[in-house]
Design brief:
Blueprint: E1 18-30, E2 34-39, E3 44-49, H1 56-62, E4 70-79, E5 86-97, H2 111-116, H3 118-121, H4 125-146, E6 151-152, E7 158-159, E8 171-173, E9 179-182, H5 187-197, E10 199-207, E11 220-229, H6 233-254, H7 256-261, H8 266-274, E12 278-281, H9 282-291, H10 304-312, E13 318-324, E14 334-335, E15 338-349, E16 354-361, H11 366-375, H12 380-388, E17 397-403, H13 404-412
Parallel strand pairs: 3-5, 6-10, 12-13
Antiparallel strand pairs: 1-2, 1-4, 2-3, 4-5, 7-9, 8-9, 10-11, 11-17, 13-15, 14-15, 15-16, 16-17
The chain binds 4-amino-1,4-dioxobutan-2-aminium adenosine-5'-monophosphate and magnesium ion (MG).
């Protein structure tokens, strides 16, 4: 009888049975007994090939296997005497696809080399773990908004105009229309959606021609952007906090094995679930930064270093709100208490990570927005449609964007955002 084909993740339900598993050889060690570390995408298992139990051809083949060879193994599932993890006592072994001179060996490789081989690097245990956490975060994001009465309103990627300033636009010729730009944010398209659906979100790729190399900036990244009618700055902070807690909870519930592979310290993540996030005005944050040794002056945007300094000294996620209007986007509602300030809020992640959410309340006055468009040197004709919502039933509204890769980097505690995307795009990185 054919042995049932089982995914490695299900092996623990088959202890004592003879099963077949297909996968790739991570590592093969040969002494008298031969060992194969096998990976099938669903998990990892050690296969033990003993001369006594294995068919002679299987034993022989096991001695010749190379890294990343694809194989089919038949064996009895048993529990590792010490760890209790399932392992396979091999009877039969069949080569499906050979592999010669696999470039990524267990020894150390430089980042440039790994990035060039990203299509292969994906197979490593660490990358597997990170991208599975990413998947869980993406799913948590959708479940959160779908379960909270938000309607999915996909935003276009080819757009005629800028949302987040004209200095980071990627352009492409667009037939007779002149230039199109890859979307920096779906926000301008979500705002009209609130008058049709009340609460909307989009979740998709966004693009910024970031010309500097940092640990936090990609040129292509995914962003989820909720937008709510009849909402204010406070609602942004409340919703963002609920979302982040929901995401962290899902990862802690569903990705223990992956977090263990990443050697992620769980205590700081668990504590996120139990604290109220901090809040500080920009003005307070600047004062705190000065105490911590930063040379920032009031009126300047935070640099990456400022965010790191601030968040190394803070034990929980922190909302910074009410920024100087001068360096924030044109669409932000001014603070009625101080018109130099905009009603924006950024959520900074702890453990030195910095901004993961940016958002705020949107200007609802037509005249104010018109003035801003002129002030920023934008072409009014490109925004006429956007201004319409201030003409027909304008209401206070607010929303934010959470960057998926920034969230993955923090939750996995990665030193650099490049490992958070399957195929990251950054300055100097377009291949593979
Ligand atoms: O703060 P940002 O620029 O805000 C917006 O784009 C708003 N229009 C969003 C909204 O209110 N609907 O970007 C939002 C988030 C940041 O907090 C960060 O997490 C991420 O997007 N982000 C980037 N992630 C990776 N690489 C980059 N270059 C990023 N730029 C922004
Ligand atoms: Mg921002």
């Amino acid at each position: 009888m054919e042995s049932p084909l089982v995914e490695i993740r299900h092996l623990k339900q088959h202890v004592g049975q003879t099963v077949a598993v297909r996968g790739w050889v991570r590592n093969a060690r040969t002494s008298k007994t031969r060992f194969i570390d096998l990976r099938d995408g669903s998990g990892f298992v050690q296969c033990v090939v003993g001369a006594a139990e294995a068919e002679p051809e299987a034993y022989e083949l096991a001695g010749k296997l190379t890294q990343e060879a694809a194989v089919r193994v038949v064996g009895v599932v048993q529990q590792h005497p010490r760890t209790g993890a399932p392992e396979l006592l091999v009877k039969g072994l069949e080569l499906i696809g050979g592999s010669a001179d696999y470039p990524i060996t267990p020894k150390e490789h430089g980042t440039a080399f790994l990035m060039e081989n990203r299509h292969l690097w994906l197979r490593s245990k660490r990358q597997w773990a990170i991208l599975r956490v990413r998947h869980t975060i993406a799913k948590a994001i959708r479940d959160f908004f779908d379960g909270d009465g938000f309607t999915l309103l996909d935003a276009p990627i080819l757009t005629p105009s800028a949302c987040e300033g004209t200095s980071t636009l990627f352009g492409t010729p667009y037939f007779d229309e002149g230039m199109a730009y890859l979307s920096q944010s779906g926000q301008l398209y979500q705002e009209p959606g609130i008058a049709a659906f009340g609460k909307v979100y989009c979740f998709g790729p966004t693009f910024r021609a970031e010309k500097s190399k940092t640990r936090r900036h990609l040129t292509e990244f995914w962003m989820v952007e909720p937008e709510m009618a009849f909402a204010h700055l406070e609602d942004v902070m409340v919703l963002g906090e609920r979302l982040v807690k929901f995401i962290v909870q899902r990862v802690l519930e569903g990705r223990r094995e992956e977090l263990e592979i990443l050697e992620r310290d769980l205590a700081p993540l668990e504590s996120v679930l139990n604290v109220e996030f901090g809040r500080m005005t920009y003005t307070e944050a600047v004062a705190r930064l000065k105490e911590l040794g930063s040379d920032i002056n009031w009126g300047e945007d935070f640099g990456n270093d400022d965010e790191t300094i601030l968040m190394n000294a803070y034990d929980r996620p922190l909302w910074v709100h009410r920024f100087p209007k001068a360096f924030k986007a044109f669409y932000m509602e001014p603070d009625p208490e101080d018109p130099k300030l905009a009603l924006g809020a950024d959520l900074l992640a702890p453990e030195g990570y910095g901004e993961v959410i940016g958002g705020g309340e949107r200007a609802s006055s037509l005249q104010y927005l018109l003035d801003q468009i002129v002030h920023e040197g934008l072409d009014r004709a490109d925004y006429e449609w956007y201004l319409d919502i201030r003409k027909y039933g304008s209401v206070p509204h607010a929303g934010f964007g959470l960057g998926l890769e920034r969230a993955v980097a923090w939750i996995c505690k990665l030193p650099h955002v490049r490992e958070t995307a399957p195929y990251p795009r950054m300055l100097g990185t377009l291949r593979p």
